[in-house]
Amino acid sequence: MADILTPALGESVAEATIAKWTKKVGDPVKRDELLVELETDKVSLEVVSPADGTLGEIAFAEGDTVTPGAVLGKVTEGAAAPAGETAPKADEAKVAAAPKGDGDASVPVQVPTMGESVAEGSVGTWQKKSGDRVAKDELLVEIETDKVAVEISAPADGVLTISAEAGSTVTPGQVIGHIAASGEAAAAAPKAEAAPAKAASGSDDPHLSPAVQRVVAENNLDPKSIQATGPKGNITKADALKAAAQPQAPAAAAPAKAAPAAPPRADQPREERVKMTRLRQTIARRLKESQNTAAQLTTFNEVDMSAIMALRNRYKDAFEKHHGIKLGFMSFFVKATIAALKELPAVNAEIDGTDIIYKNHYDIGVAVGTEKGLVVPVLRDADVLSLAGIEKGIGDLGRAARDGDLTLDQLQGGTFTITNGGVYGSLMSTPILNMPQAGILGMHNIVQRPVAIDGKVEIRPMMYLALSYDHRIVDGKEAVTFLVRIKEHLEDPQRFLLDL
């Protein structure tokens, strides 16, 4: 018998939960066929059959907790192998027979590698149906992961057969369909390549993925006016969003085309049920776990941004010319935060059981809002970086987050988090801890307000600061002192520039 083992779960992940068995004891299984799904606090994992045979034993039920290396069950080898081997051949014969011709070949449509640390994705809406003829490089479907949407195009001309329906969970390398290509199909494809596309759509619009279609419809865009930067000349969602942010003069030039894009409200359903994305599910689960675990409390202060703004305005042009990057506010906040963390190490610590782990390194998580949700990439060893190094590092992480190119390593291991709701206009908030961290700093909108300065009322650019902290290891005195230190450093930036 072959053991079904729990795989390695990743750095700092000690256990997983059995989410679902796809087979019952006694069911025939094939080698590499999905048997069980595991869930951790960071990612979902799939465990496949180690051999052909019959599922002989299930050692853990759904909902049980397992650790790496645990035997989940056993496969009795050999019993079901012959039957399992004949089915694919029959399917391939059926697929190959779709176009005319006895010598047709079937080309698999496979899920590509979706990036480091991305183990699975969900099949989006197919642009074609089984039996439809497709042209090579024509967009077929999008695979949605918790970081990015991956487009899959046809690998050949021919007739499509779909084997993984919309909503299915798939892994890199998995075959989700076949294209039966014949001599007739190959010969007909070049002639039909331009005309069928127009016939199907009634126009010469570029082909759009579902995500792009939504942006185009919601913003009343003309697809032909959008500059495409995607592979094979496809319009990406980022292209559509960029076009939506620009003045919409083209829409006025084509009123007849733009008018039907937004249906009347009366024609829209009163409610619409949409499945949460993988990223949104992870965000929801982790935020609730944070509330249920930590004794969270928030303390507030305000900072006069006059000194930082004056310093930035004075040197921003020279800074950008010398370092090749704009000088923002975030680098000052990171520097001030690290200075406060060094003075109050409990805010940079975490709880592990009955132990407190004090961190002597400063890996700062910076919350980034993306189209799919909030992610917190980590700026490593921020204490040894200059202001320019911090700005470049945050800029690189922000671009990777928006492009869906972040790795799992870039999303874990932070010691403290900074989130800036001010970019969206937030005046005040109570941020939720990014567990297992003990503190998170909330920045907010800069507002001109009257304040008392040396007995006189003056208008100053003021920002509210919020520190949410884990009261299990951080006392109120430490939390208040932490915010006061940040306030002092920002109102007198020479302090941390001179390491005072």
UniProtKB/TrEMBL annotation:
Q: Which reaction does it catalyse?
A: N(6)-[(R)-dihydrolipoyl]-L-lysyl-[protein] + succinyl-CoA = N(6)-[(R)-S(8)-succinyldihydrolipoyl]-L-lysyl-[protein] + CoA
What EC number(s) has UniProt assigned to this enzyme?
Answer: 2.3.1.61
A Gene Ontology biological process noted in the UniProt record is: tricarboxylic acid cycle
- Bias regions of kind Low complexity — which residues? 242-260
Specify the domain of life of the species encoding this protein: Bacteria
Q: What class of enzyme is it?
A: transferase
Q: Where is the Peripheral subunit-binding (PSBD) domain?
A: 207-244
Sorted alphabetically, which keywords does the UniProt record give? Acyltransferase, Lipoyl, Transferase, Tricarboxylic acid cycle
Cofactor(s) of this protein: (R)-lipoate
Task: Identify a single GO molecular function assigned to this protein.
Answer: dihydrolipoyllysine-residue succinyltransferase activity
Which pathway is recorded for this entry? Amino-acid degradation; L-lysine degradation via saccharopine pathway; glutaryl-CoA from L-lysine: step 6/6
The entry's function note states: E2 component of the 2-oxoglutarate dehydrogenase (OGDH) complex which catalyzes the second step in the conversion of 2-oxoglutarate to succinyl-CoA and CO(2).
The record's note on quaternary structure and interaction partners says: Forms a 24-polypeptide structural core with octahedral symmetry. Part of the 2-oxoglutarate dehydrogenase (OGDH) complex composed of E1 (2-oxoglutarate dehydrogenase), E2 (dihydrolipoamide succinyltransferase) and E3 (dihydrolipoamide dehydrogenase); the complex contains multiple copies of the three enzymatic components (E1, E2 and E3).
Family recorded in the similarity comment: Belongs to the 2-oxoacid dehydrogenase family.
Name of the protein = Dihydrolipoyllysine-residue succinyltransferase component of 2-oxoglutarate dehydrogenase complex
